[in-house]
Amino acid sequence: MASSLLPASDNWSIHSIPMAFGLGLVPHLYCQGRLMLATRGQMSIAQPRNNLETWKGKLPNALWAQLSRARGAHLNSLEVFPLFAAAILAGNMSKLSSKDLNNAALSFLGARTLYMTLYTTISHDTLAFARTGVYAWSIGIPLVLLWKAGNKEA
Fold it and tell me: Which of 70, 94, 125, 130 has the fewest other C-beta atoms within 10 Å?
């Protein structure tokens, strides 16, 4: 029964594209939901991108900083998403192996989950270097996949 939840083929890499997009929404939903609770619904719906700046100094500093980092994690996910989607599509068009495509997709989703967790929770500059390392790992995955697709097409 559980196997019916998986795609019919052994290549589920294209399915990872909407999964990656959805994963990038998690810190946004956290930020907006937590901000809504903290402001008792007084945040602006008409100008949502200004809410964090509007509430700076009115919320506890630690909370505001964490919400700011969550917003940063979301924006970073939007910036990295096109690279990942292009790599998965290029890999599929080049007929890279399902194993390589699936491994890249799973590695990317795992790396991005770790990255967003670190981004949202680390507030110390020295520890933030761990986040930077995970970021480099996460963007390296689609870059390698694009390289492999290019080599296969060459």
Answer: 125
